[in-house]
Amino acid sequence: MNRYERAALAAVGLMLVAAAAIFLYAPTDALQGPVQRIFYLHVSSAIAAYGCFAVVLVGGVIYLFNGSIAADRFARAGAVVGVVFTTVTLVMGMLWAKPIWNTFWTWDARLTSTLVLWIIYAGYLLVRRMAEPGRQAARFAAVVGIFGFIDVPVVHFSVTWWRTQHPGPIVVNDALPAEMLATFLFTLACTLALATVFIAIRYRIETLIDQKVNAVEPAEVIAAPQPEAAP
Amino acid sequence: MNPLRVAMAVARKDLRSEWRTRELVPALAQFIVLALLIGNFGFQIDSRNAATIAPGILWLALVFAGLVAFGRTFAAEREQASLEAMLMTPASPVAIFAGKALAAAALLVLCEAVMLPALSLFFGTPFSGDVVAAVLLATVGMAALGCLFAAIVARVRARELLLPLLTLPLWIPFIIAGGLAVQSAMGLPGSYQQAIGLLIDFDILFVVLTSLAARFVLDE
Question: Do the interacting molecules here have an ipTM over 0.90?
Answer without folding.
Answer: no
